[in-house]
Amino acid sequence: MPPHSIANLIHLDLDDLPVSAVRIDSVRFGDPFRLSGESPEHVRVLAAVGARLPPILVHRASMRVIDGRHRLRAAMLRGQDTIEARLVDCPEAEVFLLGVQENIAHGLPLSLRDRQAAAARVLVSCPHMSDRAVAVSCGLSASGVAAVRRRIPAGPPRPSARIGRDGRVRPVDAAAGRVRASELIAAHPDASLREIAALAGISPVTVRDVRQRLNRGEDPVPAARQSDRPVQGPVVEAVSGRVRDRGGAGVAGSRDPQGILRTLKNDPSLRFTENGRLLLRWLDSHVAQPTEWTRLLAGIPPHSAITLAELAKACAATWQELGQHLERNQSTG
Question: What span, in angstroms and rounded, lies between the C-alpha atoms of 198 and 42?
Fold first, then answer.
């Protein structure tokens, strides 16, 4: 799959696509994303919902379902002849990646094994995607994707550069980019991090690290990478395109609570059931953002600080216990 094609695909604004009624017998089921297959219980829940379900996503050329497999089953269970759908025009090879992104963003969550299997398939078909870009698409951490990449059997030579979350191409080994960045910083000390990053083919974060190393009198390339340091490396040309983060990707350690809550609110089995709405309302009032409690810190009297700290830790422990309980249920379900 061409690099520019991936950047354009992930940048698609699917919510702006028109909705049309398509005959159910014209729609094909695409590749499943769940190793355990479909969930009959989830299908029954959706079929019992009286409200209108969100449109499914269908690849126009093949009429394969990209997102909405359970909604399609529910419509069939209801005896419908048609279903609302958004038709997507994209190359056949990109259907799976788009489907993974959409399944991560909402609906019935994919298990860890499902997401790892999806990441492995994406890495085989798109080896030039960076770990972070795959992480956003498949709901894993970048380190988790790197571990999946290492487990993939050796195949064709792996590319020397990868596409990042911002759609730019960067070398797998950033030593050459670090050397180039150090030269650019010396020649243009007033240039911004982004300007240096664009010219050196590395991220602004890496440029900041190089600048800090130079200020401390250290080598711009860490000792662990010295053996791979080239005498002179080429600058990787940036390409246009921007990776879209739809706010549903379950990247461990990087998702804000409000983003996770938005994902849950997009789940029809929660939005359109009484228990689901009660859960969402409860979560809405109990999920705290750092920006909220930081504003309240100034008003806390000193004598209450310790008591409040104990309460915060107790609540955190309760949330941790709930999270572990749900993970155990998911792994044994």
Answer: 47
- Is the separation of the CB atoms in 197 and 174 below 8 Å? no
Is residue 240, in this structure, part of any structural domain at all?
Answer: no
Cβ–Cβ < 8 Å for 71, 46: yes
In a domain, 267, yes or no: no
Ramachandran assignment for 11, one of left (phi > 0), alpha (psi -120 to 50 degrees), beta (any other)? alpha
pTM of the model: 0.53
Does residue 282 form part of some domain? no
Please count the structural domains in the chain. 3
d(CA 49, CA 61) in angstroms, rounded, equals 30
CB 177 within 8 A of CB 202: yes
158 shares a domain with 127: yes
Asked if residue 45 and residue 86 are part of one domain, the reply reads: yes
Q: How many residues does the chain have?
A: 333
Cβ proximity of 175 and 225 under 8 Å: yes
Task: Categorize the per-residue pLDDT at 249 as very low, low, confident or very high, splitting at 50, 70 and 90.
Answer: very low
Residues 96 and 147 in one domain: yes
